[in-house]
Amino acid sequence: MFSFSEDIGVDLGTATVLVYVRGRGIVLHEPSVVAIDRTNGKIIAVGEEARRMLGRTPGNIVAIRPLRDGVIADYDVTERMLRYFIQKATGKRLFFRPRVLVCIPSGVTSVEERAVLQAAMQAGARRAMMIEEPVAAALGAGINIAEATGHMVVDIGGGTTDIAVLSLGGIVCSRSLRVGGDKFDEAIVRYIRKEHNLLIGERTAEELKIRIGTAFPESKEGEQDAEIRGRDLVSGLPKNIHVTSREVHEAMLEPVTAVVAAVKEVLEKTPPELVADIINHGIVMTGGGALLDGLDKLISRDTGLTVHVADDAVSCVALGTGVAINSQHLFNIGQRAAKAAG
Fold first, then answer.
1. What residue spans in the chain does CATH classification 3.30.420.40 cover?
2. Do residues 19 and 32 make contact, with C-beta atoms less than 8 angstroms apart?
3. CA–CA separation, 250 and 184 (whole Å)
4. What is the rounded distance in angstroms from the CA atom of residue 92 to the CA atom of residue 77?
5. Contacts 24+ apart (CB under 8 A), 305-310
6. What CATH homologous superfamily does 8-136+316-337 map to?
């Protein structure tokens, strides 16, 4: 335990960043968006303030998301964003540099790992380490992964879906899919463009997904609809249309099917003894994508297993970093240590 610096856990997500500080819990939950002035490279806004600028900035300001598909797409901007969030979370009281535990998807390459570690070090970490997202998600959901029992976790974030079977503190088999909430949104944008000749932004698509989106229309009583606004591709003028929940379901069918297929693929690779445990315990879903209406019912129907959505699905990964930080013996579970100078 460190008495002079704060241990920090970071869920560095494609859509949002959550920061856990030892002894204080989750202190920050903001979008992974940075607004930059192109003329001088200066950061104008970070987080929620920058998200409100997406698609609404003048020519000299660009609002970007520096992480794509669960990994760093723009290293410099990611490092500056991390530095901002760490300082904001700790109240700029960094007399001593903190130890930082960062979550990564289970399928990242060694190059992508190094990029995350270097970004954390450059952002002010004394020591940077990593923990795989399904491990952190399981810990955050309250699962005791140290025991000799099989547990299955499906963590659906903004950029990736991580599916893993865990036992004795480690991952037995897993699959990381570059499909998540962002792909659901992009699929809705494409569908509306194709079927209605209407151009909408990803924020509108996300709102539509949350309001009436469903992965399992049979679970809904009656069809819902919502009004959306966009630009007519024929006339070039603003236009309002009504979209039904069945249309949104049809739009998301491809990425949703990919997630279900990946879950079945991991189950097929799982040793029979652990499959028996999973039948008893069921599948636990975490991440913002787990909140998509009917997705748990669809996975349950297609696998024949019970599926539970974690109580605080969005925060599970960040809470899991907190469990790892607070329990020294758990700190090393699934961890990929960085050989970093500090």
1. 8-136+316-337, 144-179+257-313
2. no
3. 11
4. 19
5. 305/278, 305/279, 306/282, 307/282, 307/283, 308/282, 308/283, 308/284, 309/284, 309/285, 310/137, 310/140, 310/141, 310/284, 310/285, 310/286
6. ATPase, nucleotide binding domain (3.30.420.40)
Closest-CA residue to 15 (of 307, 289, 342): 289
According to CATH, what is the number of the domain 144-179+257-313? 3.30.420.40
In this prediction the pTM is 0.89
Higher pLDDT, 53 or 316: 316
| CB 118 within 8 Å of CB 158 | no
Cα 119 to Cα 125: distance, rounded to the nearest angstrom: 9
Question: In what helix (H) or strand (E) does residue 59 lie, and over which residues does it extend?
Answer: none
Beta bridge partner(s), residue 177: 161
Domain with CATH 3.90.640.10 in the chain: 181-252
167: β partners: 170
Average pLDDT along the chain = 89
Phi and psi at 18, nearest 5°, equal -115, 135
Cβ proximity of 14 and 158 under 8 Å: yes
Kindly give the pairing relationship between strand 99-104 and strand 8-12.
parallel
pLDDT for residue 255 is more than 50: yes
Neighbours of 287 (CB within 10 A): 29
Q: Which amino acid is at 8?
A: I
List, in order, residues 6 or more apart from 267 with CB less than 8 Å away: 152, 275, 278, 303
Contact criterion met (CB below 8 Å) for 171 and 134: yes
pLDDT digits (tens, 9 = 90+) for 54-109: 777 787 888 888 998 888 899 999 999 998 998 888 876 555 688 899 998 888 88
Please state which CATH class domain 181-252 belongs to: alpha beta
Instruction: Give the C-alpha separation, 155 to 119, whole Å.
Output: 24
